[in-house]
Amino acid sequence: MNTALVIMAAGIGSRFGGGIKQLEPVGPNGEIIMDYSIHDAIEAGFNKVVFIIRHDIKDAFYEAIGNRIEKICADKNVTVQYAYQEKDDLPDGISAVADRTKPWGTGQAVLSVKGIVNEPFVVINADDYYGKAAFVSIHDYLISSHADSELCMAGFILKNTLSDNGGVTRGICKMNANQFLTDVLETKDIVKTDNGAMANGKSIDVESLVSMNMWGLTPKFIELLEIGFVEFFEKHKDDILTAEYLLPIYIDELLHKGIVSVKVLATPDKWFGVTYKEDKELVVESFKELIKKGVYKEKLFS
Predict the structure, then answer these.
(1) For the chain, how far is it from start to end, CA to CA, in angstroms?
(2) Which residues face 82 on adjacent strands?
(3) In 3D, which of 168, 184, 142 has the Cα closest to residue 45?
């Protein structure tokens, strides 16, 4: 069965170079976090990579990332395609919002792959490192026998996703006895403490599973996203200049309506990300350690 890796990279920025965290080198040969995600996805069995970008960064993206990855993927019989997220790419009957300055969020981003992705797929952020286990678990789920409405997500252990340099926002998962998602509690400013973690003065269980925006989805879900985007405009008439159509929020709505189910696939790997500038040093050291342990080759795709 064909499966796709969809990378949300439209937020990379209109200018490439210093200061763009998705392009910060973290590997010994200048690898960026995205390289490791693509490597792990291909190793897990995904045979298509789709980058979601914007037209105004297309040429710079090809030069910095696309051309190099296309060559690597061609050698491995993996297809590379591009989808474009633009703020004026709206559903039929919805007028462009003149004063809107940015695209509409991760829900619109994934909707942009309509017509390009016709197979089960995993969607990830461009600047997050998820580890090998999550890709394997999601790929195995996607190729198993299940209904189009049965989705999945990687559940990371909270203590493996915290930053030493400040608070983070995480979606804390609530599940039933069969590990199906029942609720996602968006929790802001979770900080690491000597005894675990806290948010808003309350202790948080560091063994809780959290969402890091890594979802296993089906082509049918893209149709639901299109319906939800129309509903989004109906709901947000009063704050349409700033409102965002966010993937986890819409999935949560579908969950509570009983339209989809979401299997939570627990992963033991440690998440890395450059949330704060100070995080980069830890990420670089973490990849050095993974290479030392043999998890990755020093020349990643060799």
Answers:
(1) 26
(2) 51
(3) 142
- HSE-CB of 110 using CA atoms within 13 angstroms: 32
Residue type, 117: V
3-state SS class at 214: strand
Place of tokens 């490791």: 36
CA–chain centroid gap for 123, Å, is 5
Q: Which residues pair with 262 in a beta bridge?
A: 151
CB 113 within 8 A of CB 6: yes
Give the Cα separation of 5 and 189 in Å (integer): 30
Contact 266, 153 (CB under 8 A): no
Burial class (CB in 10 A: 0-12, 13-18, 19+), 266: middle
Is residue 151 a contact partner of residue 262, using CB atoms and an 8 Å limit? yes
β-pairing verdict for 121-125 and 4-8? parallel
Tokens 């440690």 appear where? 270
How far apart, in whole angstroms, are the C-alpha atoms of residue 139 and residue 226? 24
pLDDT digits (tens, 9 = 90+) for 60-115: 888 888 999 999 999 999 999 999 999 999 988 888 888 888 889 999 999 999 99
Please, what is the average pLDDT of the chain?
A: 91
Give the distance from CA 279 to its chain's centroid: 19
pLDDT in tens, 104-158: 999 999 999 999 999 999 999 998 999 999 999 999 999 999 999 999 999 999 9
